[in-house]
Amino acid sequence: MTTAGYRLQRRAPLRALNTFGIDATAPLLVEVDDAQALPALAGQGLLGDAASPALVLGGGSNLLFAGDPATPLLRLRGTRIAAVDEHDGQVRVRAEAGAGWHALVEWTLAHGLGGLENLALIPGTVGAAPIQNIGAYGVEIGERVVAVEAFDRLDARFVRLDREDCAFAYRDSRFKRTPDREIVVAVEFLLSRNAPPDIAYAGVADELSAMGVAAAMPADVAEAVCRLRRRKLPDPARIGNAGSFFKNPLVPAAQAEALAIAHPDLPVFPAADAGLRKLSAAWLIDACGWKGHRDGDAGVSAAHALVLVNHGAARGDELLGLARRIRDSVAARFGVALEPEPRIVGAAW
Ligand code: EPU
Questions:
Q1: Whose CA is nearest to atom 6 of ligand 1?
Q2: Is residue 153 annotated as part of the catalytic site, yes or no?
Q3: pLDDT tens-digit series, residues 165-188
Q4: What contacts 334, CB < 8 A, 6 or more positions away?
Q5: 2-76 CATH fold
Q6: What is the domain class of 81-192 according to CATH?
Q7: Global confidence as pTM
Q8: Separation of CA 27 and ligand 1 centre (Å)
Q9: What is the C-alpha separation between 216 and 14, in angstroms, rounded?
Q10: Set 31, 106, 143, 341: catalytic member
């Protein structure tokens, strides 16, 4: 059915809409071309209700369908990107939720803007990016966001949330804590024509030297990041995955110190909270022998221990079972609790 600003599909197959390539079916898929249609959709009950709120699907690159979703699925398809204003080389850019994340990064580079280059090649959409505050190679998008425009389902109105209102933290935000409330419709970023790129993260400067680049421009950093990612992370177009399946755990400083004494090569990083340290989940999982492990078609990438992969026909509950066994073995050996990064649909962690 086609109606003004949106399309509806009942019993929608989801395999092509999640990067794990899991076969699942949604009772209803609502595809919205114009976000202005959201209040009307809510009024007609097509965004579900308080007991069964619609799940917002971005690029499907950060979720695991452990079973069929019981709620409607909503996709925002608006992809417009535009500069809003400019002062002293600082440019505000607004992108609609349905734009591809990497397409936005490329747009900014083509317009001579720096700020997002470290986040090149991350799968997913602009609308999904603030949910888990995507981050890579030393930059998190929360650092670049001016405001998030959203439809507030509780109050049935559009809101503009400033960066402070978004409560960004490591792989976390207000949107991740109350996922059934706001539907992100657009994000505004503050980018720069002249700020020097951040190349401090391990490996970035080496990659730039290998490329023969001396004074790196944002486009060079994006290229270095793309090369690093292609080498380290499996391509979801070739083998189903959702990037890092676990967050790097935050533990009390004293616990991190004790673990680092017992295991001198365990990578330990500072955290935003001075009393905590961030540990490398990949190292902990690797040390438990999981890298390259395979149970049927559910497996752990041989290239990166943090990435679960679907070798072909794995079911969501099989991947979830593997993730729980990894969690249990890391807890038993190191006393560290791993938390999943993707949203798990249809089962509890
Ligand atoms: N390591 C291992 N075994 C492995 C892989 C890595 O022991 O199989 C150790 C190495 O010592 C390495 C360290 O882990 O130096 C860190 O690895 P890496 O630089 O790949 O970073 P990460 O902490 O594993 C995080 C993000 C990635 C992001 C990279 C680069 C999380 C959960 N993951 O991974 O984000 O691309 O840093 O910034 O924070 C994602 O979120 O989906 C994602 C891919």
A1: 282
A2: no
A3: 999 999 999 999 999 999 999 999
A4: 259, 284, 287
A5: 3.30.43
A6: alpha beta
A7: 0.96
A8: 36
A9: 41
A10: 341
